[in-house]
Amino acid sequence: MMDDATKTINLLIETERLADKILQNKHEIVALDKRRQHTREAIREVEKSDEKKAWIAVGSMLIEMKKEKALELLQKDQNVINQEINKLRSDQKVLVGQHRDLEFADPLKGFDLNPLSRDEVGAFRTNLPGF
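^ p53 and DNA damage-regulated protein 1, sequence as received from the core. Prediction below:
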């Protein structure tokens, strides 16, 4: 009888651990998305500027640099943020699947769908009129 109670407690602990990790990832995604939006706004402002140099924040410092170099750094930051968000989203799918397994629930339908690539959309357009 004690063995079943121990298994149940371990199952609940593991379920809660996964749920906490899922929530933590969700908060990280939201924070990264805010950062991505701020970076996108900064890129837009630097592009619109007529100045040859731009002031950008690097950590807690403000640095003046050439407009082209500033745009390059901001674009790199944008790419890194996008990669981190995509990694967290793919990890999230795995964690949710594991959590549902622990709860003995059916897997979510459509949760693992991916958008069509440009080549796939192009193939649809050439083969299906009106697509």
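The two ends are 62 Å apart (CA to CA).
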